[in-house]
């Protein structure tokens, strides 16, 4: 399938094409920005544009190079990603970049490497990439995609030209998401949850029933009208990492709303209304910290008892009576 730049990425695209036309395209680009906004898609579209035989400002989709790309076996494109979602890019994978980048292009044009996400490279992998970043092969472009650029090794960042990727407005995000959902009824919850991350919202659609169950039960738990154990059992169908991410995002939105932000997310508004009747903003912020701690526990590779984790989470989110 021909790669396409998303509507809000037009200025990024024009900037890179301008550099290319003036012969100023760098050999390494760190494309960074918010997850769920299509940065990897942008990298793919730029790669196909450079590989396309037409030499136009967008891939033609018809030439031999585009046909190879669309078939997923273009010999001058190398895509590095973790072997499993949430995993690491390892040194053996990066060593493939070294040999790839110094070989001759089989189609006679560019050779493009996409590394996504760049922050997934472990220290050894990142260090193995440094020499290639310093001395790339002729007409070789490395596109590093990052949703957490500050965590990319500084020696890698310093060898790349960095580009901040555009983020859609809530209206742009809603329009795109509306066109890419299988059921329009899912739009209100998914858009409110991620108004500027429409691709993330689309990815969550298969889980929208679980999300809706959490969205309904969380405010009730926090106002004290739902039982802790019953709520924990209700959440058991959700993957713990995703559940913690949903809860974290809703709680964070509630805190921002209390500090003067707009209550654009109805779930966050209900959480805030429920919590304000029983407790303070400081205590709500403490609950955010508790959720962050649990997310870090899972990210560390720990494998806690699932039911105990859910019960602990529900207990921590139950209301605290303010003493007067």
Description:
- This protein has helices at residues 10-21, 39-51, 64-70, 91-101, 123-134, 154-157, 170-179, 187-193, 198-204, 208-223, 228-234, 240-258, 266-276, 281-299, 306-317, and strands spanning 28-32, 77-80, 111-115, 140-146, 161-164.
- By secondary structure, it is of the alpha/beta class.
- Strands 2-3-4-1-5 form a 5-stranded parallel beta sheet, with helices on both faces.
- Strand 2 (77-80), helix 4 (91-101) and strand 3 form a beta-alpha-beta unit.
- Helix 12 crosses helix 13 (266-276) and helix 12 runs antiparallel to helix 14.
In short:
This protein is 52% helix and 8% strand. It has 324 residues and is of the alpha/beta class.
The 3D shape can be described as elongated
In terms of DSSP E residues, the strand content is 5-15%
Total DSSP helices: 15
Number of domains: 2
How is the CATH topology of the largest domain named? Answer: Rossmann fold
Q: Could you spell the SSE succession in H and E letters?
A: HEHHEHEHEHEHHHHHHHHH
| Computed CA radius of gyration, to the nearest angstrom | 23 Å
Low-confidence stretches: none
Distance between the termini: 63 Å
Label the CATH architecture of the largest domain. 3-Layer(aba) Sandwich
Describe the sheet with the most strands. Answer: 5 strands, parallel
- What strand line-up does the widest sheet have? 2-3-4-1-5
């Amino acid at each position: 399938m021909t790669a396409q730049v998303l509507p809000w990425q037009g200025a990024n695209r024009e900037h890179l094409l301008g550099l290319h036309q003036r012969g100023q395209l760098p050999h390494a680009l760190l494309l960074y920005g918010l997850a769920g906004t299509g940065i990897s898609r942008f990298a793919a579209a730029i790669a196909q544009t450079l590989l396309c035989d037409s030499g136009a400002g967008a891939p033609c989709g018809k030439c031999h190079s585009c046909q190879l790309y669309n078939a997923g076996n273009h010999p001058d494109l190398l895509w590095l990603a973790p072997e499993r979602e949430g995993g690491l890019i390892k040194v053996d994978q990066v060593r493939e970049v070294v040999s790839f980048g110094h070989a001759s292009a089989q189609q006679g044009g560019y050779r493009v490497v996409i590394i996504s996400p760049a922050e997934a490279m472990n220290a050894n992998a990142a260090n193995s990439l440094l020499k290639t970043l310093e001395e790339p092969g002729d007409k070789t472009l490395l596109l590093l995609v990052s949703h957490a650029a500050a965590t990319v090794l500084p020696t890698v960042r310093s060898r790349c030209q960095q580009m901040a990727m555009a983020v859609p407005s809530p209206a742009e995000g809603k329009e795109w998401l509306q066109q890419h959902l299988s059921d329009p009824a899912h739009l209100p919850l998914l858009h409110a949850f991620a108004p500027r991350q429409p691709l993330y919202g689309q990815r969550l659609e298969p889980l929208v029933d679980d999300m809706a169950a959490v969205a309904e039960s969380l405010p009730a738990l926090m106002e004290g009208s739902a039982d802790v154990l019953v709520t924990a059992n209700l959440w058991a169908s959700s993957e713990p990492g995703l559940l913690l991410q949903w809860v974290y995002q809703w709680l964070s939105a509630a805190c921002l709303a209390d500090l003067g932000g707009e209550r654009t997310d109805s779930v966050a508004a209900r959480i805030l209304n429920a919590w304000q009747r029983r407790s303070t903003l400081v205590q709500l912020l403490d609950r955010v910290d508790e959720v962050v701690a649990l997310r870090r526990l899972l990210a560390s590779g720990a494998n806690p008892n699932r039911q105990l984790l859910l019960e602990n989470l529900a207990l921590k989110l139950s209301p605290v009576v303010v003493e007067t």
